[in-house]
Please model this.
Amino acid sequence: MEAVLKVYRLDWPLGFPRYDSYSMQIDERTTVLTALLQIKEEQDDSLAFRRSCRSGVCGSCAMTINSKAALACKTRVMDQMAGGKEVVVEPLRHLPVIRDLVVDLRPFWQGLEHLRPWLVNDGPFPEMPWVQPLSEEQLERLDRLIDCNLCAACHSEYLSPGLDPSQPGPAALAKALRFILDPRDSLVRARIEEAVQSGLWRCPDCSDDLCPRGVRLGEALSEMRRLAMASGHAQR
Amino acid sequence: MLETIVFGKRAGRAAAQYCLHVALGDFPREALRGEESRLRRLLGGNGGEKVPALRREVQETMTEHLGLFREVKAMRRAEQKIQELKERHSEVSVGDKSRVFNTALAAALELGWVLDLAEVIIAGALPRRESRGAHFRTDYPQRDDERWLKHTLATYSDQGPSLDYAGVKITLFEPMERVY
Model:
């Protein structure tokens, strides 16, 4: 069937934003990503966007589709066309646009790096065997947080004008929680303090359906705040 | 994937150490000129061959003739086809003329390298008259350790891939017949 994709375009450095409409044939399996690739191959190879795995794993193709941040490879065009409307494709919000659907993710990385998203173990190097298996219960708590692929969709959705895009957002806080809950990490208290200082209490509440990978960000934020209160960092 | 992280870190450390003891060499400016004219041709043209069509042809050729079942006649056909595609690739141009995040240009360059790799795969597969792992030949279905238990090394030359062979270092695992 026929579909129309209305896509945000911006040429660098002297262009003004515009929307280009592309009509094309799709079927029930066509994703926004395959549609964009089809446009690039058959109609306009200057359309720029990021993509890699095309299977919902890498996070490269996060963009705004009909006003909601999502992964293009996991969004079916037909589902977006309910009521015969055209599908509007735009870059992620609140980040500088490099070109068309490609944004500068550096502010997002900055917020993430600020909370040290890696395992820190200051203890003495463990004796062999140094594999420290986690219990089923511990794994289950981490499971819901590990799926983040740093796509920045949540970042696009939770920010509003007035909030600083380079401050740790939901993805960064969820990552911090992932390490706080990991018994192999030794930073626990410091991580909680860093989260509080970076605006844990100022961060707007997140809903659990922000994340295209199903990370429950609302739940993660609540848990971080509970831990903060338990360590004496009540809301300021 | 864990290997990439571990060996990536080791490689990075070794590279940093190496840099401390080695002076910067002279930059080969001649190489730049070749690249400049190639980029000018890719960005400057307007007609000619298109990347998506060529890419589809190399995908189909390699899947069909160098895929699950290989045999000499099909591989020779693929060899000729790849040469044809390489020539056509030298006439390719992209529509996107931008100097910023030009993914069409990247795709055109990468297709050139894919064609080089296709050429090497075929060059390695043709003389190897045996079956071994993913290289399964219907015309030589048995493994031949006596003649072919060795690594193929391919070096780039203007006349195409130049082949050499290196012995396999056998340590913990002895080559055995695959019976599972």
Summary: The two ends of chain A are 55 Å apart (CA to CA).
